[in-house]
Amino acid sequence: MAEPIFFQKKIPSNTADGLVIQEELVSLMEQFEYSMRDVFAMRLSLEEAITNAIRHGNKFASDKVVSIECEISEFRMRVVVEDQGEGFEPESVPDPTSIEYIERPSGRGLMLMRAYLNRCEYSNGGRSLEMERHRNSDLPRVDDE
Amino acid sequence: MGKSDRRIDIEEFDGITVATLLEKKILDEANIEALGQELFALVDKDGRKKIILDFSIVEYLSSAALGKLVTMDKKAKTNGGKVVLCNIQKDILDVFRITQLHRVLVLCSDREDAVKKF
Question: What is the pTM (predicted TM-score) of this model?
Answer without folding.
Answer: 0.93
